[in-house]
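Appendix B. One record, verbatim.
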Amino acid sequence: MGNRLRSACYAQSRSLKFNVIRPRRLALPQPAPPKSCPCGNVHLSPRYHPLPSRTSGPPFCLTALELQSVNWQATSNRQAHHTDRFSSRELILRRGQSFSFSFSLNRGLGDGESLGFIVSTGPYPSESARTKAVFPVSNGTSRGGWSAQLVSKQDNILTISMASPVNAPVGVYTLSAQISSRGKDFILKLGTFILLFNPWLPEDGVFMNNHAEREEYVQEDAGIIYVGSTNRIGMVGWNFGQFEEGILNICLSILDHSLNFRRDPATDVARRSDPKYVGRVLSAMVNGNDENGVLSGNWSGNYTGGLDPRNWNGSVEILKEWKKSGFRPVRYGQCWVFAGTLNTVLRCFGIPSRVVTNFNSAHDTDRNLSVDVYYDPYGNPIEKGSDSVWNFHVWNEGWFVRTDLGPSYNGWQVLDATPQERSQGVFQCGPASVAAVREGDVNLDFDMPFVFAEVNADRITWIYDASNNTQKQNASDTHSIGRYISTKAVGSNSRVDITEKYKYPEGSSQERQVFQKALGKLKPHAAFGATSVGKEVNMALLLKNLTSDMKTVTVNMTAWTIVYNGTLVHEVWKDSITISLDPKEGNLSCDEVSQLVSGDRVVLVLGFLMLNPGPPPSSSRCYFCYPSHLPPPPHSESLFRFDPPTQKGCNVQAVMPENLGGTETHGRWEGSEEKQWKAGALGGFACRCAHIGKILQAVMKS
């Protein structure tokens, strides 16, 4: 058979060479440059490849390899990979699991020709980033990388079994065959497929061992979301519809429209191997506050130009409308709409997920694990402060390992797409380990203090009297926050209370111990306001001595330029200060700093200035100024008065406590009308001040 094929090709080759060359000599005085086929020989037509030489003499050619057809064996593969419920016609696979396909060529592989494959994903595939792999046909599989085995070879039809690594990024892949001959490669594009997470595979980070739970949290396409209040828990039916036509491709588009992808697509695609990364990106993208995400939130009661959130009953219409509109946020959503939509996307990608409702949910904005609620003397609620308590709030839980935290924090992770507070500059929340919430480990990633407070915060009630601008604490409630945390039961429409997964029983010694543990782990909060190019950046360092002894501390500060992922570039500033604080004394409090802002007349504390050594306490005090029309801060003991300012500056006289008598302060200030200011003796050294945005210096001396 082989000799007859070679003879036939040889005869055909001679005949075609004769027929091609002679007309070209007659018709084309300057023929086109010869072309090289993949085997390395020069031919007038790329359709011909050389035969390996059998004897001495000129080489003989075979027809170039051409792809005739591909059989993805879609039915058997989709059943084996649990993707047969998707309405899409595409080949949808789960990572870490083998799949079979066959393809036919116009001829068989010749002697010296070898077969391999290339898979790639994303716009900039790279082997170093694991978004591209080049691998030969081998005799075995490897969970650490892509592999392929030749199952059968019948005439020109090759059947292949291929396996992806268990940590491959999810997304759309391109598969090509690579034919190698004599050092040259010839590429045949076979087609594309979609790769998802694999909760059926023990080695996958999203593996869920319980069959019934896996069916509920991955395969179930409809569910119940709980709403209402602690006194009357209601429910809303929701169509997740993760398998409906077009939904998978829309979910993939969500990732491709994220801020991370737009900034650095190569890195973003590579990180899609990690379910916690994908979950965090999705929590940002399901709301449209930052990145033209899926839904626009509205709690005003006026839903002109959109749909009342109460009228949605599923995610499919929302996702299709988002795509149809050119990927502009769909109007409008509230917490259960965000959660229902995020649940669809998580299950679509193969991350087990469920919708969770927390009744009496705290919204703690200042990380102190308490929410302050204000009433007037007549019992009317007052909108004062930014803390609040929601009758109910709905979020999601995704199931995956936390390789960044350790095995004790694996399992359910809170993901919240409702835009409440910014996290790393973006409206996103989670993943926060439910196990970590229960144990009060608020120092762990991501957004743990906020999630912990939602279910554990103390509720402080204040009576505020506007007539004399005073407030008095009325009550402290440690039990009402985080009640009846609910989700749909596995395999039924019953409600399951999972409060015990989030915290120990209210009022128990364990619950209070965890609360105090969490409070102790919270680090001083750094709040950064908006900055403008070319403007000075102001900073206030807040310290307090909690001991009974005087303490002297040295604070070293640096500023660096960084790229978006935190990589350091250049050091641009550094400073070091030493501060002495008396027992139980602080330099400034957050409330006092907030009182420094008053229209266009502002005095800002920017740092500290060392004084000449002297006996305490005369040389170891710090004063700050604030507008006199504001309520006095605690421990207000002094008065400053500014002389009328001139171009040379102005003098500031201070009325001091008796133990600081004789201290005078001189300051240079930008022009302003004469104004009286109060000052509080708050510890530390003298301070640098700014007036109307200018950095100037005030010097205190004895």
